[in-house]
């Protein structure tokens, strides 16, 4: 049973590539601009398109098959051989020891999409060289990105100090905004894995977070202190300073309170958090990072205000806003019964912004389940654990990113969110209205009594 693949204009039916011959490395065949409409009694639209990664297309197709199968098979068990075949494909394309490993020198394009001449003459030698610098063959893309940033944002920043102009400042701001997401998720991989380079190039691991981080809105090591040493310890629970559970997550005022608290108080709240847990070195270092950064920016602003505004101040404030908008989107939908379940306190997205451009950041539940999991392994891991995701009532969305999740929630646009949900497990078969009610229940503020009960905090 295949999914009805219809082009938006012609409604032409085309067979799925795996419907009769089993799975092969045919991932490109998924890359068709189509609107797949699963014939199910509610308006679910699954968009598979050329911008999704090969892995995302496979995962999405499997989930759509599940929905389609359940609709047509009247509750009979879904065939799982396709899942196994898909997992094998995903494992092979991300297994660096496999002959079928797909390298990832760029995030915007897959290697096989590139012009043959360019691929042979430029890309292959580059990948061979870069693989000697990064620890994992799959991480060549990080070196590419560091190259982009070093070649553009650093000279641009120096030139702004040398000769400031408003058009240049505006272009610098646009470039910084464009880099903010990918760089932050690159840094996310760096802080979780204690570096990305082989020992010979450890100096690069030590240098780039300070230099590029400062230009792209991160104070020294603060992301590591806040994210690895605090957020992943508290898991959005009551002691997480960026926890969403005490806020009504579809109310603008609540979001602004959440954002305002972070912007105004994180510099002192994070050191106090570490101090109260007797982690004095972390308390001191996190306070020193913030205080020295603020002092340096104050001094730079006094020396030359306009370039400092665009090179340091706007990137810092903008990055902190972006991080809170993103964190809200990642942890706004929290299960009302089991908010401390890692399957139920965050979501999974299958979309191009989060996964293609930000190194599979959409698989946030998979990341919280194992924060050391390599970014290329998330899709295969998701499919491997699919029955657990189904049983736990995890939430999976497609064709929407975290910023859009936050935006839609704050507009209470549950209709759009329900349309973007890919139902799994018991969610399959629910009506549109039931899905809307289900989502609404997961944005409700937890009372202190509920927090005490659910999180076992007396
Ligand atoms: Zn993380």
Please explain how this structure is put together.
- Keywords: Membrane, Transmembrane, Transmembrane helix.
- The chain crosses the membrane at residues 140-162, 255-275.
- It comes from Oidiodendron maius (strain Zn).
- With 458 residues, this protein is mainly α.
- The chain has a domain at 5-95 and 341-449.
- It has 18 helices and five strands.
- The strands form two sheets. It has a three-stranded antiparallel sheet, with helices on one face. Strands 4-5 form a two-stranded parallel sheet.
- β2 and β3 form a beta hairpin.
- α5 (166-193) crosses α6, α5 crosses α10 (305-331) and α8 (252-276) crosses α10 (305-331).
- Residues 188, 192, 227, 232, 367, 371 line the site of zinc ion.
